[in-house]
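Just scan my protein:

——
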Amino acid sequence: MSTASEKKFLDRTNPPNIITLVLLAGVSALSMNIFLPSLPSMTEHFETDYSVMQLSIAVYLLVNAALQIVIGPISDQLGRRPVILGGMAIFLIATIGCIYAQNVTMFLIFRMMQAAVVAAMVLSRAVVRDMVPADQAASMIGYVTMGMTIVPMLGPLIGGTLDQMFGWQASFWMLFAVGALILLLTWMDLGETKASSGLTMAQQMREIPELLRSQRFWGYSLACGFSSGAFFAYLGGAPFVATTIFEMSPSKMGLYFSAPALGYFAGNFLSGRYSARAGVNKMVMIGSSIAVFGVFLSLTTFPLGFKSAESFFGLMIFVGLGNGLCIPNATSGAMSVRPSLAGTASGLAGAIMIGGGAGLSALAGVVLTPGSGPYPLLWLMFATTLMGVLAILTVIRRERQLNR
C-alpha cells in the first residue's frame, strides 16, 4: 500500500492514491448521516409520521446490504473500477430524485437507489486487500476509515446547519456536489487492482457457500455486525432521543450526534497503528469489549441521575472507539479467510453487518416512545455489543482448535 500512496496522483494506469480511497469510503458515510438532523423537518414537509420518515435510514441500509452481496462477485469478475464508477453515477441520479420527490413514497424509492454508493465503500476496502496481505490490510483499512470518520463527525453538524439556513434539500444538494467531484477524481485516479476472475456471475455466486461454511468467516462477520449494530441502532434512535427527550434544535443535535465519530476516529487510528503488530483477533476482542463497556456505563449512570444530553451522547464515544478497533480488523479477517474471494467476502460480510444494522435501526425507531426515555435504545445497544464479544470468542476458539 505504501507504493500506492507514493505514486503519482491522478494516474489511473496504476492503483489509486490513498486519498481517493478515503474519499470513496467517506461519501458513503456522508450519504448515511448528513440529513439526520433534518428528519423532523422532512416529516413535516412530506406530511407523514416520524416512524415513516425514519424508514429513510432502514430502507437505505436494507438495499445497501442486498447490493453488497452482488457487488463483491461482480467486481471480482469485472474489476473494481467499472463497478465503483457505475455505483457513483447511480448515486448522483438518485440524489437529484430525492431533492425533487413530490411525496414520501417517491423520496423513499430514490433513497433506496442512493444505496448504490455502497460500491465505493465496499470496494475501497477490497482494493486495499488486493494490494497487501491480511494484517497490513487491517492496518491500511484502519487508516482509510480513520480518514473517513472525519465525514460522520462533520456530516450531522453541517446537515443541521444547512437545514436551519436553507431547508432539508440543502443537505442533498451538498451530497450531489460532493459525489460529482469524487466521481471525477475516481475516474482520473482509480487504477484497476483486480484482474478478471474469468468466472461468470453464476460461477461467482456459487463460490459463496465456500465462505458460508467457514466458522471463522461467520465469526468475523458477526463480530463486526454485532459490534457495529449498536451504532446502527443509535442512528435509528438518537434523533428521537435528541429532539423528543432533550428538545434539541437541528444544529445542536448535529453537533452532539457526532460524538461516536470522535471515538471511531481514535479507534481507526489505533487500528492503523497497531493491527499489524497485535493481530486481528486481539484488536477485534478489545474493540468489542470497549463498545460493551460504553453502553453499560450509560445504562448504569442514567438511572443514577446523570440524565443530561452531555452524558448520553458523551458515553457514545466508547461505542465509536470500539467500532473503530473492531470493524477494520474484523473486515480484514473475513476477507482473509479465502483471499481469492476478497471482493465477495467484503460484500457478504458487509451485507451481514448492514442488513442487521437496518433491522436494528428500524427496531430502535419502534421501541422508543416519548415516555420511555432512552432505555429501550440503550438495552438494544447493550445486547448487540455483547453478542459481538461472543462472536469473536468463537473465532479465537476455532483458531486454537486448528492450531492444535
Notes: Residues 22 and 203 are 31 Å apart (CA to CA).
